[in-house]
Amino acid sequence: SAPATVVVTAEQSPPVITQIQPNSGTQRSTVRAGILGENLLGISQVIFSGTGVIASILPGGTNNNVPVEITIAPQAALGGRSFTVTTPGGLLPAPHECNLPSSKTLQ
Fold first, then answer.
1. At a CB cut-off of 8 Å and minimum separation 6, what does 73 contact?
2. Is the N or C terminus of the chain more exposed, i.e. has fewer CB atoms within 10 Å?
3. pLDDT score of 74
4. Strand 90-100 to strand 79-87: parallel, antiparallel, or no bridges (unpaired)?
5. 75 vs 34: CA distance, rounded Å
6. Chunked in runs of 10, what are the mean pLDDT values of the chain (107 residues)?
């Protein structure tokens, strides 16, 4: 009889977000940014809190850097914005916040 086959799979560590750079932009603009961290391959969506700020994932992501394009609407409310990423393991809130302060800059 044939020998038994054993399949070994590696469990991927959960993603960790360390920062988003740049972390600023103005109302009525589009900003190309990178979400930096570890185990980021597989991010399928980035969601900002509130309204008027949306993100699209760009091609060319790596395990440590996911490029995104952030569109900030003219009517986007000023103030802090948290963001969450969708991963194969579920939703991951980022530990950092972006901001639309009174100077109309996303930080």
1. 27, 28, 51, 52, 53
2. N
3. 94
4. antiparallel
5. 24
6. 70 79 88 90 89 95 94 88 81 64 43
CA geometry: angle at 33 spanning 28 and 39, to 5°? 145
Whether pTM > 0.85 for this model: the answer is no
Cβ atoms 23, 98 nearer than 8 A: yes
Strands (E), the chain: 16-21, 29-38, 45-48, 53-57, 65-72, 79-87, 90-100
The answer to whether the beta carbons of residues 29 and 76 sit under 8 Å apart is: no
pLDDT attached to residue 31 = 92
pLDDT of residue 104: 41
* C-alpha distance across the termini of the chain, in Å: 65
Nearest to 37 by CA among 85, 1, 70: 85
Kindly state the DSSP code that residue 24 receives in the 8-state scheme.
Answer: -
pLDDT value, residue 103: 41
